[in-house]
Amino acid sequence: MNRNRKLLYPQNSVARFAIPKEILIFSLLLILGILIGAFTAKNGNSNILTQVKNMFDSFYSIRENQSIILSACNSLKVSGAFWLINLIFGMCIIGIPFVAIIPTIRGLGIGLVTGYIYSIYGLKGIGYCFLVIFPGALISFIALIYSVSDSFKMSLCTLGVSLNTGTQKGGADKIKIFIIRQVFYFILFVIAAFVDGITNNLFSGIFNF
After folding, report:
1. What is d(CA 140, CA 198) in angstroms, rounded to the nearest whole number?
2. Residue 75 vs residues 20, 153, 197: alpha-carbon distances, Å
3. Within a 10 A sphere around the Cβ of 24, how many other Cβ atoms?
4. Helix (H) or strand (E) holding 183
């Protein structure tokens, strides 16, 4: 019976679909940032709400009549900045704590904006978030989580080598693979930026805040 069960459900096939613990942890940190941001936007003091309002008003007025290319470029500036910071810290021996908080900071910004939109505009705000903000943000979040996960492991490896707890063999190959993977993640950020530009161009005119 156990043998037949193993044949039907081999362990390697189950492991193939398992979520790496780093991905799970950084996903939770991102969600935590979003929840903190949304809660702050809904229950924060007047100074915080004023700053969030000014941020959203500026965000909306700038993007309202932008072309797809311009919207994509502005979106890429933000996600690209997070990617670059993540890349730099990923190659540092002291980068582990800094890399770890990147998803939370990114989620905090989105949470503040979307929480404010929902608290002020209700269902209209939810519609704007789902049609304009979330499609590109979802791709960007996936790219960020995987990018951060790789940087965390790279920084951990670099720290281990510096403390003589790891091997230095294949160090150049590890860096090469790390850079190639990070370039791939940056391409995903570019795709996310264009999706953001397209959804903004298609749907932002529907809403009037």
Report:
1. 14
2. 28, 27, 8
3. 13
4. helix 171-203
How far apart, in whole angstroms, are the C-alpha atoms of residue 46 and residue 52?
10
Domain range enclosing 194: 21-29+45-206
Q: What's the pLDDT tens digit per position in 12-21? A: 544 454 568 8
Q: Which amino acid is at 4?
A: N
- DSSP type of residue 15: H
**Structural domains of the chain, count:** 1
Give a yes or no: residue 4 inside a domain. Answer: no
Task: For residue 8, tell me if it sits in a domain.
Answer: no
CB 150 within 8 A of CB 158: no
Query: b/e per residue, 179-209, with b = 16+ CB within 10 A?
Result: eebbeebbebbbebbbbbbebbbebbeebee
Locus of tokens 């991102």: 30
Closest to 31 (Cα-Cα) out of 142, 127, 136: 142
**Whole-model pTM?**
0.83
Question: What's the rounded Cα separation, in Å, for the pair 159 and 55?
Answer: 38
Is residue 35 in a domain? no
CB 106, CB 33: distance < 8 Å: yes
Of the pLDDT bands very low, low, confident and very high (cuts 50, 70, 90), residue 148 is very high
The rounded mean pLDDT for the chain is 85
In a domain, 168, yes or no: yes
Contact of 184 with 60, CB cutoff 8 Å: no
